[in-house]
Specification:
6-stranded parallel β-sheet, single chain, 11 strands, 39% helix
Length: 403
């Protein structure tokens, strides 16, 4: 029995920055042999994005690149050249999946489209991760994460909550939040295509639109418009009693929408006398007096840490969650108990902790056997040992800028 869920699966990744590479990272975490193909000389732009240790830019020390490319091997190859495309075809013949993120017209020009690749390997699965998908008037549009985030409607409701109604929409937390969601969707669809191929023996195209991935996160709102002609706003989401509470070291989010939540909150606060006021007997009365109640809540919460407030409320049955920053998450006893962070050594960047896979498989757990590849680190392994090129030819290809 295999110790890796996708052991024996070979993936060629011709993607840059976040969405496609994160898909490749997830497949690598499942045990696939993911070979990242980068442009000679410049590599993935993520190498220049950072963050960098001590804020000193270095192409082998970008935190973004190191995270999104764990567990992969890496080669350099210029697919703009005839020789590069020939070598790519040799790699495709040995592959199960090709991940690519070029606009459809560019992919077709370079021979990265499904029709061309399936002619080389009729069982190949081609997963294309693009801003707007393979069809439609926007198919060849390029986009930054900010563009697709709002094109999918995800930013429309941010920030949420009745207390923020006067603020305009904002970007979600983290510059690449929507791209990570897109990479996750691409990974799920690719595994489904692999399963189908195991049953049917056929490859297929997996068409991922980053816009549509983000639209799927707000599917209920789209359904309301399609079927009821109603566009929801943040006001329609409804006010929430309590919402964000200040603590002495940050904030806690609470939800007190039901009577049993209110009863739990009162118990957590020690059943103060003011809580018996008849105005608070029903939800509407509590909502009408939200500002007054919030002040009473914060008299209690401001004397405690956000973790203590969260744990006290949860213990009494009131939904609550601390608003965590990265340092809080790293120190979380829950994350430590789950072993969520894993340490990996990199020859140039050093040893760091990384967020691991967002799932746990009991029989075939994720394994972290290699750091993100150096630029062209596995050229000799793949082009010489696997494709059979003589070392002298590899040197010629390097001088010619093909690798």
């Amino acid at each position: 029995m295999s110790e890796k869920a996708l052991e024996g699966v070979r993936v060629l990744e011709l993607c840059e920055m976040v969405a496609g590479p994160y898909c490749g990272r997830l497949l690598a975490d499942m045990g696939a042999d993911v070979v990242k193909v980068e442009r000679p000389g410049v590599g993935d732009p993520a190498r220049r994005y950072g963050p960098f240790p001590d804020d000193v830019p270095h192409p082998e020390k970008s935190g973004l690149f190191l995270y999104a490319n764990l567990n992969k091997r890496g080669v350099t190859l210029d697919v703009e050249t005839p020789t590069g495309r020939r070598l790519l075809a040799d790699l495709v013949r040995r592959a199960d999946v090709v991940l690519e993120d070029r606009p459809p017209s560019e992919a077709q020009r370079l021979g990265l489209d499904y029709a061309t690749l399936s002619a080389v390997n009729d069982q190949i699965i081609v997963t294309s991760v693009t801003p707007f998908g393979q069809t439609g008037p926007y198919a060849n549009f390029k986009a930054y994460p900010l563009n697709t985030f709002h094109a999918g409607g995800e930013g429309y409701f941010l920030p949420g909550g009745a207390e923020w109604l006067s603020r305009p929409p904002v970007h979600g937390g983290g510059a690449f939040l929507g791209d990570y969601d897109s990479g996750l969707a691409a990974g799920v669809a690719t595994v489904a295509a692999l399963y189908d191929r195991a049953v049917s023996g056929r490859g297929q195209r997996v068409d991922i639109s980053r816009q549509e991935v983000l639209m799927s996160l707000n599917g209920l709102d789209l359904t309301k418009w399609q079927n009821a002609g109603k566009v929801e706003t943040r006001a329609d989401r409804g006010p929430r009693l309590g919402s964000t509470l200040r603590c002495k070291d940050g904030y806690v989010e609470i939800n007190v929408n039901f009577n049993h939540h209110w009863a739990a909150l009162v118990r957590a606060l020690g059943s103060p006398a003011w809580a018996t006021d008849e105005r608070y007997a029903y939800y509407k009365g509590r909502l009408d007096n939200d500002k007054e109640l919030r002040a009473s809540f914060e008299t209690w919460s401001m004397s405690q840490t956000k973790r203590a407030v969260m744990e006290t409320l949860q213990a009494h049955g009131c939904p609550a969650g601390a608003v965590n920053d990265p340092a809080d998450v790293l120190a979380s006893p829950q994350m430590q108990a789950r072993g969520y962070f894993t340490e990996v050594s990199h020859p140039d960047a050093g040893r760091y902790k990384y967020a691991s896979a967002p799932w746990k498989l009991s029989a075939t757990p994720a394994r972290y056997e290699r750091a993100a590849p150096l630029h062209g680190e596995h050229n000799a392994d793949i082009f010489c040992r696997e494709l059979g090129l003589p070392p002298a030819e590899l040197a010629d290809l390097r001088r010619a800028g093909v690798i």
